[in-house]
Amino acid sequence: MLRIALTGGDGFLGWHVRVLTRALGWPAPVLVDRADLTDPAAVAARISGVDRVLHLAGVNRGDPAEVAAGNVWLAAQLAEGVRRAAVPPASISYANSIQAGNGTPYGDAKAAAATLLAEAGPPLDDLRLPNLFGEHGRPWYNSAVATFCRELAEGGAPRVDADRELGLAHVTDAAAALLGIPAGGSWDPAMPLLRVGVRELADRLTTIATTYRGGDLPSLVERHDVRLFNTYRSHCFPAHYPIALPRRADARGELVETVRVHGGGGQTFCSTTRPGVTRGEHFHLAKVERFVVLRGTAEISLRRIGTDEVRRIPVSGDAPALVDMPTMWAHKLVNTGPDELVTLFWTNELYDPARPDTWPEPVDRTAPQPRAVVG
Known about the structure:
This protein is an alpha/beta fold. It has helices at 12-24, 34-37, 40-47, 64-84, 105-118, 144-153, 171-179, 198-212, 223-236, and strands at residues 4-7, 30-32, 52-55, 91-97, 124-129, 131-133, 165-170, 194-197, 243-244, 247-250, 253-256, 267-273, 278-283, 289-295, 297-304, 311-316, 321-325, 329-335, 341-347, 359-360.
């Protein structure tokens, strides 16, 4: 269990690092924000005694000269803070880029930043990251995946201006690499790449969106299939839910199709819940989980990790509908009716008690928490 500090904690990669530390049960990271970085003495005070500093803050878009100067300045300010710390951090992990040293203003600035951090004193893990994708990435900023997902979620179509091959890693894998933890059921610090052309990526995400429009599940055979689907779903929630399920009735009774998978396995189970009883209070990093209430009334509550706002969705067996739990959102199901609740659950993978990908987290939290994430 490490005590870490991070710059860029409110960004895309920073949020995923914070979610992963939450799952691991580590102390909440110490956040070093842009205001702190203007004063190396403030940086020194915040990072003194931590086990590792993760330098994630950077400038990725804008005027080339400003991008270059910004990345060097951020590293220089952090390095000076490290030198001034009463108890210097044991190590530094730097979210560098595979573009480092490629002759562009951005690439050369990232390489120069690595040199400054290496001269600060503690051992440096200079991690050269590929393009990252994952849940809640900013469209038109973090990756083409985020942009295509947002366009599709809003009913549009991805536009491909130029085709080229991409090497994409899931952001949770990058977070694991920066934290220096071994592979787990939901992360791999080796960062296995999805190698795909831009046009093929657009087509692949379009297939996911088209299949999922009515609640059918796309092919979830490969690891990257699941990660792309979870990324797309993060741009659908909460506006697209619940998804109503058609009922077919005849003299024998009624039929509702709850799970239609276009490739891949999974596990289905059913539960009864007494009035007033709660199920859940956890989150998943990669697992796809579906709730369908078949009898009774309930409320599904969800909260994105690191934020305070709780989304509440009423559901009823009188009007069956599906709600797929977004990854990295704490969720729970409460029986709000006077009678027994019957709920069908489906997950895309068989339950493995050794690697359950189920991390305890209350949905309605009252204790003080770290700064909320906005990115």
